[in-house]
Hints:
heterotrimer; A: alpha+beta; 6-stranded mixed β-barrel; 15 helices; 50% helix; 15% strand; C: alpha+beta
Amino acid sequence: MLAYQIRIAWSSLRRTPVLSALLVAGIALGVAVATTFVTTFHVLAADPIPGKSDRLFYVQVDNWSPERPWDRDRPQEPPDQLAWREVQGLLASEIPTRQAGMFKANLTVHPRGQAERPFRALTRVTNADFFEMFDVPFLYGGPWDSVAEADRAPVVVLDEATNRRLFGGEDGVGETVRIEDRDFTVVGVLAPWTPRPKFFDVTNGALEEPEALYVPLGLTPDMELSSAGNRSNWKPFDGEDYADFLESESVWLQMWVELPTEEQRQAYEDFLAAYVREQQALGRLTRPVNNRLRDVREWLTVEEVVPPEARSMLIIGLLFLLVCSINLIGILLGKFLGRAPEVGVRRALGASRGAVFGQHLVECEVVGLLGGAVGIALSAVVLRVLNRLFTEDVELFALDLTMLGAGVALALVAGLIAGLYPAWRICRVAPATYLKQQ
Amino acid sequence: MIRMERVSKVYRTEHVETHALSSFTVAVDPGEFVTVMGPSGSGKTTFLNVAGLLDVFDGGSYRLDGEDVAKLSDRAMSRIRNEKIGFIFQSFNLIPDLDVFDNVDVPLRYRGLGGRERKSLIEEAVATVGLSSRLRHHPSQLSGGQQQRVAVARAIVGRPRLILADEPTGNLDSAMATDILGLLEEINAAGTTVVMVTHDPELAARAPRQIHMLDGRLMDFSRDVPAPLFDPARPRLDPALSL
Amino acid sequence: MELGPVFRAVMYQKGRFWLVALEVAITLAIVVNCVNLALDLRAKYSRPSGLAEEELLVVRVEPFAPELAEEAYRDAVRERDLERLRSLPGVHDAVAISAVPLSGGGSATGRRPRGTEDEPSTTPYFIVGSGALATLGVELVAGRDFTEAELTTPDEDYEGQPTPAIVSVAFAEKVFGEADPVGRVMESSTGESSEFVVGVIDRMQNSWPDNEDNAELSVLMPGTPGDDRRGYYLVRAEPGAVDAVFLSLDEAILAVEPGRIVEVETLVDVKRDTFSANHALVKILSGIIALLVFVTGLGIVGLTSFSVTQRRRQIGTRRALGATRAAIVRYFLVENWLIIGLGLVVGVGLTYGLNYALAEVAAAPKLGWELLAFGAALLWLAGLGAALWPALRAARVAPVVATRTV
């Protein structure tokens, strides 16, 4: 039955090519705009690591000034990063299945040979667990092992682009590369990986490109590395050297733990509480206990990763689709009611109101789907443009299967909005009225 | 009032040429009450359309109230339609969104009269047709006969010199039809020329003069007709078949 | 001309006209809110920075040579850098600075007037060497510039006494209120750091020009900026010499000490990057506004045409009753004008509603009535224009249509 109705609808559309083109264009425009903004919102608001997002937790401890909170506008919040002392103390726990402290830095890479000048590379300084925790894919090799971690060996994982730059795309594992003041051994090369958003480090740029290098956290004191991200302190620095800096209350690190079970989570919360009490006994952490253990989605919400503009554009995009659909109501009314005599004859010959309504609605949905197809294609193009305008990551905004589905759904809804009233009007044509007059 | 000489009107489509009016000559004097009869397709409505300046004609000449209409601009024709002619249509042609008052008001608006003047003219016209109690009703709330009476009020509100009525009783039952005819006779008695197209021979019989049309030509049996009307080549019609 | 009957007809038969009114209402809501957003975004960008933006170049230096880990050596290199930079043809002046204004990256602390218990105000600061005011292009409106001595005396030598600082007018007003700030002392909440104001500059945007409230809070402190990781120079070129200077900068720096990575950018480009999302959004909003007005215009044409077609007999009747073609056009324009007007009235409510929703959910700026009035007036005109073609079509309906039975 549906196939038959679709066939009829298609031939009806072909009979008025210009009008049909107009209808399809109207829906295409609305669907293109709406799908584009639904996609941008989806990319920014989606769960970046589905399947694991409820097992990974961001750790926060309040080491801020006793006299005032970290954020005056949200006084119940602890600082959004940790101090070095916290990370060292917390890494001692054996409760999490995996854990990683981290920060981003800019390190100088000295390529071999005189041809290329040294360049800066965005680096994530972290523990080996980072890669497994965040499902980071490897092309060659793998993370450094616990021995290397304990020995603070100079090992590095490269991203695919850097591997290409240094070793021409060959397997760089085992090669040496000079970073800063020492030689590093390459233990792994990542496959192309762009987490969207960069949820493990939202405080320092959620839409930034991913890092080029990964080195062990343990090297930080040795190499006197400093963060290229945010760094804040409530106490003026009265130390003299880097060691003093590491002992200070300056917060500049992020810490994630993997706690798959409820028991682990509970145990870790207890551990955190005990750690804070311990530090308080030493005279630190003078603010009331304010630890936080937030999973990925909670953390992204608290940090408001979705820019408010994305929300605005989502609403505007959907309203735009509404206007486009309403626009088409007039055209459809004209088209359908122009056929009123024919419909009158059909009704006189026994067609029910429901049949007429259904037939016309199918016609609207066919228009909707055609317009949807064009609109989705248009949307893909627009998203490319948006990528170039907003981020350095050329594939940030892209249509995935879910969004394709969203586009189709939007097209069907648009067809419905446009066609419901005209279809209802035409099905109410009384059989006899148009038969009298010639 | 109406002086048509050899007026012709041809409708052309891709395949067919229809002579709605063929060398049509007729004369109607001021103050007359004339009914026009004839079978379907005889050109009655076309004659009315041309007479009322609703449609243009292809050949011949037409003088309305002494004025040659051939050279009139659309603007001038609109003015004449507005001031000199009143139309009554078979399907009433009332504007459904407007109430009785506003419907009768329509021709007056195109005349640029003041509000108070219009109001008094409207109330008078509506009183003449006996619908003063329904001044603010909408057409959907009126019966067929009442609607046609509103149409009559609209036709006379501007005190036209000529009323053209196209099957004014066609959609009414006999009681209402008699009503309408009575109204028209009253209007005619007051001095307005009335030309009425009708199917109904009984109604037509009440009028002092009847014109018969066939194939776009005039068959006039109640007055002496100038010779050119009779084409010797065509057979004469039997008077008994004046239906 | 026929406002009364037109109004009554529209009111009686609302069903026919609700579509156009609804479309106009929604379009008004969207367009006005988009314009509001776009204007707000543009205002943020257009605020004057107080700096000689067009003439400033940013040099970022990242040392990797091991000798540069020594502070004394770094200081010497910095001196030679500045000497070299200032000697380049086309260079007006240069300064070493701890962070780049307008770049989105910088430092801030908290200060309040000494002796008060106020909440410390956020205090974005720049550590600068000699030549700051001349290079930045900011205007000194009270007090004086740093002296040579102040620029070279290290902090420790002050032994806890207040160090000198130059503040912006906006900062002075926020922290010190209306009083003359020159000579006043400000301190951190612990009292351990303090500065006294030696000079006041008219306006200087800090590293975060997109922050509505704090963009113009700036404090300059004398010192030797730049550590073993990173340092910045701001170089001011003579007007017209910017391109030439741009090309000569990294060579000049590397000639002094090649063990560093040097990157040069114009401040204009830095600002553009900081505001890039802003710009992009304005473009997108403009596109949406144009599309929407176009689409709605088409819609009105369509719906009005349809309405005309539905009423052919009525038009013929009016013509039969004496309406001229002009009168028919006028009728439809008046009717359209009225319907759009009604749509706009409803639209006003929708516009404020949408604005409220956007403000709640997406931190959008509030709407002013002038913009709404302007938008409504514009849409009214546009709608009228859209109705012109159908109205002209209506006028072509012949009077004889009144007598046709089909």
